[in-house]
Amino acid sequence: MKKLSLLFALSLFCSPLFSQNTIQPPKGYSHDIGNMISMLDNLKQRVERNVYGLDQAGTDFLLDENANSPGAIIYHLAATEAYYQAYTFEGRGFNAEERKKWETALNLGDKARQEFKGKPLRYYLDIYDEVRARTKELLKTKDDKWFEKKNGNMSNHWAWFHVMEHQANHMGQLALITKRIN
Residue 6 burial by CB count (10 A; 0-12/13-18/19+): exposed, middle or buried? Predict the structure, then answer.
């Protein structure tokens, strides 16, 4: 029975639903940008796996009075990615309308703890999905030369690497938080 359980667990986490075992550019993208998309999507799947099945109490769970809820963290990931869309594709920060939409999620803290509660997990995941779909749409129009182009004090490639590492950091945070939920 123990062996069967292990095989089931391995098959579940090695299935396409939960992860991939190679980095390959999806069709329609240049090589380096496609590899970044592959890695971003893999991290997004792993973030989602950490919060899979959370009920409302879990979505709003605060580890302590200074923590951010899983829902707020997912919104934060979407806000950060939306910021880098504006920065890398348009060479700017958020405009007034975008600040209104994203600023609380980008900064988190007390205001986010008050604002981001009472919404189902799907609410936050849908926002994350929309932002990622836009990222992929925009990156599909660029090539590896653009990816290496300097944009302010960083290259576009580095900017999207930062989005990826940012997701990885919060993925670890979500893993810790969800293990503390009763």
Answer: exposed
- What is the architecture of the domain spanning 29-180? Up-down Bundle (1.20)
Radius of gyration of the chain (CA): 17
Q: How far apart are CA 135 and CA 160, in angstroms?
A: 10
Burial class (CB in 10 A: 0-12, 13-18, 19+), 128: buried
pTM for the model: 0.86
Q: How confident is the model at residue 20 (pLDDT cuts 50, 70, 90)?
A: low
Domain boundaries, the chain: 29-180
* Distance of alpha carbon 49 from alpha carbon 9, whole angstroms: 13
Could you say which DSSP state residue 150 is in? E
82 exposed, middle or buried (CB, 10 Å; 0-12, 13-18, 19+)?
buried
What gap in Å lies between CA 85 and CA 16, rounded to an integer?
Answer: 27
Residue 182: predicted pLDDT = 63
The predicted-structure confidence for 78-112, as pLDDT tens digits, reads as follows 999 999 999 999 999 999 999 999 999 999 999 99
For 154-177, how does the pLDDT look when each residue is reduced to its tens digit (9 = 90+)? 999 999 999 999 999 999 999 999
Helices (H), the chain: 2-14, 31-51, 56-59, 70-90, 96-107, 110-115, 121-139, 144-148, 156-180
